[in-house]
Design a protein that fits this description.
This protein is an all-beta fold. Helix content is 0%, strand content 55%. The protein is built from no helices and 17 strands. It has a 17-stranded antiparallel beta sheet that branches. The two termini are 18 Å apart.
């Protein structure tokens, strides 16, 4: 890592988290990428980033491998040698952020991303949070996964009252291929990316309702809970043109606030998925975490 003025350069294995390249963080050992990245903060309220990575290390493997795709396996004798990206995030208005990114997975696809998010504090109790995410993906170079022409978006609107938040989401995939992203990664900044399903099948349309609560109002700081239900339809598969699925998730987390175990967190996640074109899933995850301040 090299830092000078308002710019930071990183070389080697690194954690990345942006809308076009983000490592999966759902396991003890997060996904890493090998390459170079550059971040600049010279302009007020604007963060610019660019980079290129050639290898990744999955959370369940000890060695590095070439970048893969969620959509499908590349031909056996071909690899995509790198992913390059350029983007930025601006937050010059209180409560408002917006991002623009462009990326290319060599000989597979080019991907463009934009988002807006605004939180409006009505008063000390009420808040509103509208937002949108949009991806455009097209095949590029040798088109190793065939023709891709995909437009995917999600819209959300959240209403907060004290420690309660209710969120409604609409998401749509337009195209004959799924919305694609790096295999085992989290570079799918769409509102209906759930614990198990992303609702990103070809032509799939989905909606979601979510409820969050912070127990600090009941005198239990550090305890939070979330419940959500998402439903998708009209996904195109090899067997049908109206693939349907729903997923219900529950998440309860507690972080110790003081004492020798301060910042120790425990989280329970439960997911139930039912579908007419994929296997049913009942999944529980128990996650223990600890944040250690180094400075």
């Amino acid at each position: 890592k090299i830092r000078a003025f308002d710019t930071e350069l990183k070389l080697g294995d690194q954690f990345l988290s942006n809308p076009v390249v983000a490592g999966g963080e759902s396991r003890m050992l997060p996904q890493t990428f090998r390459g170079v990245s550059l971040t600049n903060n010279s302009f007020e309220d604007l963060t610019l980033t660019a980079g290129q990575v050639s290898f990744t290390k999955y959370y369940n493997q000890s060695g590095h491998r070439r970048l893969g795709s969620y959509y499908g396996e590349l031909p056996g004798d071909r690899d995509s040698h790198h992913l390059s990206w350029l983007g930025g995030t601006w937050g010059g208005i209180e409560g408002f952020t917006s991002s623009l990114y462009a990326a290319e997975l060599q000989n597979v696809w080019k991907q463009y991303y934009a988002d807006v998010d605004y939180t409006y504090e009505i008063d000390d109790n009420w808040s509103l949070n509208p937002g949108a995410h949009y991806y455009k993906t097209v095949d590029s170079g040798d088109s190793l996964l065939g023709r891709i022409d995909n437009n995917t978006y999600s819209l959300h609107f959240a209403v907060g009252y004290k420690q309660h938040t209710v969120t409604a989401v609409l998401q749509k995939v337009n195209g004959n291929t799924p919305f694609d992203y790096i295999n085992q990664g989290d570079s799918i900044f769409l509102d209906n990316s759930q614990q198990y399903s992303d609702f990103n099948g070809p032509n799939e349309k989905s909606w979601k309702l979510q409820y969050d609560y912070d127990f600090v109002a009941l005198g239990i700081p550090g305890l939070t809970a979330m419940a959500r239900y998402a439903s998708g339809a009209h996904a195109r598969t090899k067997a049908m043109d109206d693939g349907r699925a729903w997923e219900r998730d529950v998440d309860v987390a507690y972080v110790i606030q003081s004492g020798p175990l301060k910042n120790l967190g425990l989280r329970w996640r439960n997911a139930m998925l039912r579908s007419n074109h994929a296997a049913d899933v009942d999944e529980n995850r128990l996650i223990l975490s600890y944040s250690l301040p180094l400075l």
